[in-house]
Amino acid sequence: MRIAFLNPVVAAFAGFLMLAPAQASDLHLSDEEASLLEQLRDPQQEAWQRIERQLTRHWSRSGSASADLLLQRGRDAMRRGNSSVAIEHFSALIDHAPDFAEGYHARATAWFMDGKLGRALSDLQEALVRNPNHFSALTGLGRIFEDLSDFDRARKAYLAAEAIHPHRNDVKAALERLEQRLGGVTL
Question: Would you indicate the residue range of the signal peptide (predicted)?
């Protein structure tokens, strides 16, 4: 029954992955964010970890002290392993700041921890609509598709993440896993 419910969600993401690059071109990035993303995309970039941290900090700033506090409280609850409390904080954050991509990404992570893959997929879609460059959301999307044995869509999501952030070992390992699973077909 659970897989049947997820199939429409999974199907919706197939179309979404095709639309994400077009939406990214319409996205208005700050000069700082655009510069950081350009530097991160360079496969020869040696300071990629610093750039990744800067982007993550940038994406974690909502512009509202109360929203930032809800994000922090939710993250603290997740670190303690309390996904239900984290979901409450992230849901309040999304109610307060519905255009803040990181709120959806964080709640998707909490839903995933709670085993609610359909809800996690929905929140990842919302995060990526607001921030198509969110490589962690794309990686999460790949992970969920991989868990659902939808290896083609998992591959597409991981490749999209790799195009933005070619340095992530978890994405490289996932693509290698998929290559082995698909019988050595070159990805």
Answer: 1-24
